[in-house]
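Q: Hi! First time doing this. I have a protein sequence and I read that you can turn it into a structure. Is that right? Here it is:
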Amino acid sequence: MRTLILLALLTAPSSAQVLLAQYQAGNAGRPPTAPDPQVQGWTLTDPSNGTVVLTDLSPDGATGSNAWMIDDQVTFGGARAHYGITFGSADLDEARDWGWEMASRMRLVQTNGLCIVIDFATGSSSSDDRYLLWLEVQGADVLASNNLTGANIICPGAMDGAYHTFALVKPSGATNKTAQFLFDGVVLGSWPRTPSGGGAPAGGMNWGSGSSGGTGMANWNLVTFKKGTDVIQLGTPYCGPANLNSTGQGGRIEAWGNPLAESGLLSLVADQLPANEIGYFLLGDAQGFVPMPRGSQGNLCVGGKLGRFVKQVASTGPTGSLWINVNTNALPTWPPSPLLPGQTWNFQAWFKDQNPGATSNFTDGVSVTFF
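A: Yes, that's right. Below is the predicted 3D structure, encoded as structure tokens:
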């Protein structure tokens, strides 16, 4: 089944992410000036009382990019300023479970010590996770560091005057706490979490000037936080094992994708089926049990509002397997309906068989709740 899963996912939609927060300065002339981040939902925290310069820079020289400039050249107590946003508990839970990506497209101008920061934490207690990213000029390069974990990664050539993207990506799994650091889309190393605490975002993301002890200047073009990064196995099997078919095995179904309904990423895979027979998938918003319907040798295990993926009917081929990518914008109910957060759908596959005469059978079922 692993080969089938890879085949399905290679042809599946490329993105399984949902945007939670964004600052977008735009490009030269579009818009004419970079908007204040507060207009786009970010909250300003400014202990410097206006000493840190926060202003539009559009366009930023010959780069073709608009920017919001944060210029911190002071080191007295409280001399810092950053923008932040707090996420709801449901979004934090989903980000923790299904992965997240925090990224900034920016141009670092100068630093002296720790100053320019991007920071995400699931809360502010020691049991919460924090991912702290400092950016410092190191000659022609930029040093990405976390003074709390000792992480240090060089971004080669990042001081060439162009805009670059610095990102942390944590894969799915609440127990998988190590993120990856990416420079312009290339993974350069691991980024461990640290226990959160005072000064960390209280369940959200901060960016800007994060320390009174250093100075720095950075021009910010794009800042994003997205939940959901991974394709994973979904749902809970039920109604199994399926009745034996002519292979001597019961057919199996698995669902793969992302549990965020907005991601639009869902594939169904079935194996242990007879070779070169016709089959298709079914769905229902309830579980059911109808033994051997219409002379079938299997059991129908989906109920309620039903749908059949008859437009994706296919042969099981020499491997005795089926797979489809689901159009989550139009599930094959009547009338067609989109997949929505909070829904639970149950899936099963039906297939023809010769056992020994002409008949049909079903796989077991899988129940998936979407968020």
